[in-house]
């Protein structure tokens, strides 16, 4: 999928209007804002590289495995340890490259959040040859240096994020690759010392580098300190062990690095700060991160963190969000930017469709997934190796990913605009033409389309909403599906829902508009702001329309019943 000329122009215009901060000096916290070297406020607009240094099962379509540790074990069962290591080396080499970073800069991102797995930088405590000492591994540092060079070439900040801490920082084990059979970060002082030592080592390495935007010292702690039954720490009122580790880690960083921002995250996946600042803020260059998923985008949802900001006079940063529809993305970003808060989205790519880049796995990997799901035969070692290496060496690379311009539009243009833009250029020639129904305009719900389930604002429980049940093609809150012949279509249009299309017409005049689809519903049609009097068969109806030369807008809505829509076909009648 390629970006349209129109979208490219919009991205360039947005970049000019909202230019990223020039990294001439270190970012710093000043009052409740993050500022640059000249004291000018900076809105960080970033993307997290989830899945690169730390895999989560859902990103690879193996949620049943969950942690990278278990994914690796299952790969080893098929191809052995040496070929498994070759897979992971290829994965790290190809998942994120300079092409990915160049693309992020073109789209408008001014920062990158790197989720680090500690085991790429140092040995696990259990493997240290000398108890209490730290063995450093060059691979993680080398890859971080390389990513930093790509970021600098694009004038982007790099934020280091310890995503998998030694022992794991919570009972949500997938996000930190935690082995629940081993002692956790909170149960083992040696693992805490290793984490602190790693941050001191990173600070020593990058203390003079202004393109390092900040140190995000521990991702999403989720642990019941006072009550182990409170598994993710959401009811915790003291958080004393968390505060202690944050303070000690900050002190170790400050021994060697006085200039970089330190970012802290509360308990309960970064959102429970009860007790953390009861004794005051311990550093004058500190930023408070919060994470936001699957809830409303009304101002009251920020009330707690805004109160925290104002009470302690510290900047806020939405350090992680995403995994929702484009409409939700636009609303959430508008919400936080209205408060002067920057953000980092999650993630850049995975197998699913609701990110800027989508990994499309090869057929062999799909067969491997079926085997792991108990729905297909076990592949031979050779078949598994070929599928895995193609996945890690080819499928994950930027040039082989599907690009989703609708997601990029939702992150940068739609938060600041209530106007739609074309998803693709639709040209109607002198004799007519056809528009695929799934290529409706880009923009928010109520702007480019309206759907009764446009986003998931209801959490992860039984009331959660699947905004695109077909999980295909684009991430708007419109139900899409695939016919038996492979054709994409809009599915289940029902009363109250509508789609807007922008078309370019070579010759103005009279046309017959034919709707092509399935079902028994009735549709209404609006042309250039005027709604036609008659309703038509939504799946097989025809209606005369008058189109002007040049740009025209059409809206197709469900009047009654329910129908699928595959295409809009125009035929000249003059």
UniProtKB/TrEMBL annotation:
InterPro entries: Galactose-bd-like_sf, GH, Glyco_hydro_5, Glycosyl_hydrolase_5
Signal sequence range: 1-23
One Gene Ontology cellular component annotation held by this UniProt entry: cell surface
Source species, domain of life: Bacteria
A biological process term (GO) from this entry: cellulose catabolic process
Start and end residues of each Glycoside hydrolase family domain: 83-348
GO molecular function: beta-glucosidase activity
Keywords carried by this UniProt record: Carbohydrate metabolism, Cellulose degradation, Glycosidase, Hydrolase, Polysaccharide degradation, Signal
One Pfam family, short name: Cellulase
Homology family: Belongs to the glycosyl hydrolase 5 (cellulase A) family.
Descriptive protein name: Glycosyl hydrolase family 5
């Amino acid at each position: 999928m390629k970006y349209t000329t129109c979208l490219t122009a919009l991205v360039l215009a947005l970049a000019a209007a909202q230019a990223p901060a020039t990294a001439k000096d270190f970012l710093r916290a000043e009052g409740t804002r993050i500022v640059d070297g000249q004291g000018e406020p900076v809105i960080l607009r970033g993307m997290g590289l989830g899945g690169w240094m730390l895999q989560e099962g859902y990103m690879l379509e193996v949620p049943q495995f969950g942690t990278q540790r278990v994914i690796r074990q299952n790969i080893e069962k098929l191809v052995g340890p040496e070929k498994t290591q070759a897979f992971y080396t290829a994965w790290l080499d190809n998942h994120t490259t300079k092409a990915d970073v160049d693309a992020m800069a073109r789209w408008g991102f001014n920062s990158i959040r790197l989720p680090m797995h500690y085991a790429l930088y140092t040995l696990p405590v259990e493997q240290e040859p000398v108890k209490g000492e730290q063995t450093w591994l060059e691979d993680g540092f080398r890859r971080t240096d390389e990513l930093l060079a790509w970021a600098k070439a694009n004038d982007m900040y790099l934020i280091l994020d310890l995503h998998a801490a030694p022992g794991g920082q919570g009972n949500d084990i997938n996000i930190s690759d935690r082995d629940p059979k081993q002692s956790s970060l909170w149960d083992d002082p040696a693992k805490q010392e290793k984490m602190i030592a790693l941050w001191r080592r990173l600070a020593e390495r990058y203390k003079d580098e202004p393109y390092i935007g900040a140190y995000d010292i521990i991702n999403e702690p989720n642990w019941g300190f006072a009550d182990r039954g409170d598994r993710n720490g959401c009811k915790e009122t003291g958080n004393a062990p968390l505060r202690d580790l944050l303070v000690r880690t900050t002190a170790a960083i400050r021994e060697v690095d006085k200039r970089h921002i330190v970012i802290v995250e509360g308990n309960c996946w970064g959102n429970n700060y009860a007790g953390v600042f009861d004794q005051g803020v311990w550093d004058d260059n500190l930023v408070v991160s919060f994470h936001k998923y699957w809830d409303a985008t009304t101002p009251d949802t920020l009330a707690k963190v805004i109160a925290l900001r104002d009470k302690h006079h510290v900047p806020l940063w939405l350090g992680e969000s995403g995994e929702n529809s484009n409409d939700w993305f636009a609303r959430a970003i508008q919400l936080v930017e209205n408060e002067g808060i920057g953000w980092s989205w999650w993630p850049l790519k995975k197998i699913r469709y609701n990110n800027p880049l989508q990994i499309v796995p090869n057929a062999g990997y799909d067969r491997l997934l079926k085997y792991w799901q108990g729905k297909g035969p076990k592949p031979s070692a050779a078949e598994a190796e070929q599928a895995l290496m193609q996945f890690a060496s080819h499928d994950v690379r930027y040039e082989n990913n599907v690009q989703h311009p609708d997601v990029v539009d939702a992150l940068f243009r739609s938060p600041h605009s209530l106007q739609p833009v074309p998803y693709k250029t639709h040209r109607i020639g002198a004799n007519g033409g056809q528009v695929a129904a799934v290529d409706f305009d880009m923009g928010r719900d109520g702007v480019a389309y309206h759907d009764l389930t446009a986003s998931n604002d209801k959490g992860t429980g039984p009331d959660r909403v699947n905004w695109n049940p077909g999980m295909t093609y684009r991430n708007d809150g419109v139900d899409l599906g695939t016919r038996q012949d492979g054709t994409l279509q809009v599915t289940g249009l029902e009363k109250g829902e509508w789609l807007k299309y922008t078309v370019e017409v070579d010759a103005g005049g009279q046309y017959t508009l034919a709707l092509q689809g399935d079902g028994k519903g009735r549709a209404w049609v609006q042309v250039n702001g005027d709604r036609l009097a008659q309703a038509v068969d939504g799946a097989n109806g025809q209606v005369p329309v008058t189109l002007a030369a040049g740009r025209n807008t059409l809206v197709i809505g469900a009047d009654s019943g329910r129908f699928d829509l595959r295409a809009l076909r125009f035929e000249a009648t003059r």
